[in-house]
Give the backbone structure.
Amino acid sequence: MSPASYRAAPSRVGLTILPRRATNPQTRGLAHAPQLAFTPLAMRHCPRMRTKLGPMDNSDIFICIDHVGYAVLNLDDAIEFHTKKLGWRLLHRETNEEQGVEEAMLGTSEQLPQSAQVQLLAPLNDSSTIAKWIANNGGKGGIQQVCYRVADIDKASEQLRSAGVRLLYTEPKIGTGGSRIQFAHPKDTGGILLEIVEPVAGGHHA
Ligand code: V0V
């Protein structure tokens, strides 16, 4: 899979019912219940869901939870735990020098376009933000960030700024697979490091 293509594009699929898949070697042996995937199109066509949930005020900007980022001490060990013991699938791996991380993205075996991913982040060096986070966390790994996928990062940044949320960068930087990323400061988000990401145009999972 090319680095630029790991992130899923917004889906137009409505309701998808996925059957059990005993043939996938990565998931064989795990107890897989059929999964239901609801996308905005399904919600528009399902009166009960619409009544219950209502539309987001900003669904033209925010698409879904892209990933949850875990700070880890050792990337290979964390990948092994997630793939061998939990049965997740390794979608992508890269080094981002600017962000000071060695990272991996993991997904479910089907990995629908709006399925969230797990991002494993290991420090590239001692000055990495991940190294600092781990040190502040008593030398242990943990959840370092949550990332929302956006359709237009410039528009999303403008909306957050106008709501008084401080962003870390003047302009978005390059994130996983060539995506554009920005972060909101945890002090303005209730203590959570919130990343927003605009995937590369047409990016999708293999
Ligand atoms: C720090 N704080 C956090 C936090 N990091 N709170 C929640 N979640 C975190 N991850 C709190 C900390 O408890 C302190 O609160 C305060 O912020 C200042 O902490 P600090 O240790 O002095 O840290 P700073 O200010 O040096 O750095 C914090 C920031 C830094 C958020 C500015 O981590 C940063 O630049 N992060 C964005 C870049 C990043 O995380 N890159 C790695 C992922 P008190 O004690 O004052 O209350 S790269 C990535 O995600 C990629 C490539 C991708 O997705 O594509």
User: Anything to note?
Assistant: The chain has a mean pLDDT of 80.
